[in-house]
Fold each of these.
Amino acid sequence: MRTLTLPLRSARLELRDFTRADLDGIVAYSCDPRVTRYLFFGPRDAQSTAEYLDALLESQVERPRTRFELAVQELGSGCLIGACDLSMIERGVYDLGYMLGSAHWGQGYATEIAHTLAAAAFRELRADRVISTVDVNNSASIRVLEKAGMRWEAVFRKHRRAKNRWWDCHLYTLPREVWESEQAQAAGR
Ligand SMILES: CC(C)(COP(=O)(O)OP(=O)(O)OC[C@H]1O[C@@H](n2cnc3c(N)ncnc32)[C@H](O)[C@@H]1OP(=O)(O)O)[C@@H](O)C(=O)NCCC(=O)NCCS
């Protein structure tokens, strides 16, 4: 089975595997309720972050590796600013996601991450389709998915129950053919 060659790089970011040394940096963004408002978990404290990091480090050595939960590091500053993930949910189908510390919102970083993860999924993992689900009220993330070329496909009412409520979520998708034709158009510009 194919795997990703890490780290992934974009113009301003490096997407790399987490290490134990990232613990404090992960706590710094995931303890913030604004950051986890539309995520099924959190906010996380130091203890729950440590447990999460243990599970994440174990997932790095699974073979075949189907889950790539990656640290987002700013190339300029070398700082850990968030996390993103690309996970195989069924053969040929990868789910992407991202979260950033609030000090780093509004600079186009999440869009850069979504483009980078989608390209890696199609080029390196030979995905047929990339998908993402997003809470119907998470307008910033919906905008990111649209800017990354993903298309609205469905709404899942009561998609999941978490944090004492039901979550209605949009499904966004990007089929390989659409991504390839967008790449060809961009190359011809
Ligand atoms: C969602 C998130 C990743 C966006 O990161 P970001 O780096 O700020 O995103 P970008 O800068 O690439 O793009 C954000 C877009 O959303 C828009 N936006 C921001 N807040 C918005 C709001 N409340 N309503 C509508 N659009 C909004 C921005 O204007 C921008 O669009 P534009 O370029 O057309 O102006 C970030 O807010 C975050 O980490 N949130 C918490 C975690 C989360 O919700 N993750 C997604 C789970 S599906």
Amino acid sequence: MTLELHFHPLASYCHKVLIALYESEIAFTPRLLDLADPAAAAAHVALWPVGKMPLLVDAGRVVPESTIILEHLATTIPRASWLLPAEPEAALETRLRDRFFDLYVHTPMQKIVTDRLRPASSRDPYGVDEARKQLGVAYAMIERDLAGRSWAAGERFTMADCAAAPALFYADLVAPLGGDHPRAREYLERLKGRPSYARVLREAEPYFGHFPKE
Ligand SMILES: N[C@@H](CCC(=O)N[C@@H](CS)C(=O)NCC(=O)O)C(=O)O
């Protein structure tokens, strides 16, 4: 198996896959992708016309979409099988949490961040307000659902936690969890303290200056 990961160290969805690779100590060739470079962007679009990263290339096979990449790792590399529990009920719960963090935390967080990158005249305050409301609902659900749980889908660290870490990390920067979500805060701190995510964040540090503050 020869794995290549096309990614950027600051890109939140790339964090999701890096956590899984580092957790399982899976060797891969890092291909740092700068979509601001027209040649790199054109080469990337040739592989995956949607143009999003991360993208895994496994022995020539292109595997897009972070969740699909994680499921691909879980089913092709025995020591990555922890990503998705074998029991159907536990697998469903894990997939639900993965979807929840992508759709209801990651997506509104990205909306707020990408709006900051737009020219002032093209900003979308209505959409950003909606995204903030969505995050408020999601934070309350996370607070409720983490009662009696160490990790997103239960007592085991799974792909749901790989999804949660970058979604919550960046969401907390643009819409702070504040004092009303103590379980979510502790969970985020637990994620940041996990060696795999601590490494991802260390490697992203040189790029944090590019993160839009306002
Ligand atoms: N559903 C995709 C989302 C990937 C995504 O949004 N990637 C962002 C980086 S975090 C990206 O490629 N942004 C560049 C762009 O939109 O041009 C996944 O799960 O992989």
